[in-house]
Amino acid sequence: MPSSNKFRLVEPTEWRPLISPYAYRGYRQEEYEITSIEFMNKSMNATCRMTKTYTDKNGKWHLHGIMAISISNELKQIHAHLINNLKKNEFKAAMSHITMDFKRPISTPDNISVKLLITGEKKKLTDDVITKIYTWKFDFCDESFIAESTAHYTRKIS
Asked: Considering the entire predicted model, what is its pTM?
């Protein structure tokens, strides 16, 4: 390939055949539900199942990183409320960082187990606002996917 210090415009006819159908639009067709949650202070076990899946051209499905991030985001939201003894959705635990390692594919959509463990916690107080920052470790399906996520939430003190 010739070397150049100048960008070249890539036409859609050239890049469209290269895109991932799942990443481009397929993930929007997927849906999941949480089927069970067990809670104990700084840990939580959850089970999810896919209610709608996007299969590849060979008719196969596996859990993609995009969906794993969505599931972990929802579970940390629930966990942050439970550990603060809140009974309704009072804040958004905004994710500020996530890393994820994919060790083995997860290909059973009916029984996706996720274990959460808080590995870090900080609190900041001002006159009428509390900010909590949590770091979670996520284990999907016996370490098939491992993730670490940091999120914070801020709410007024009543």
From this structure: 0.85
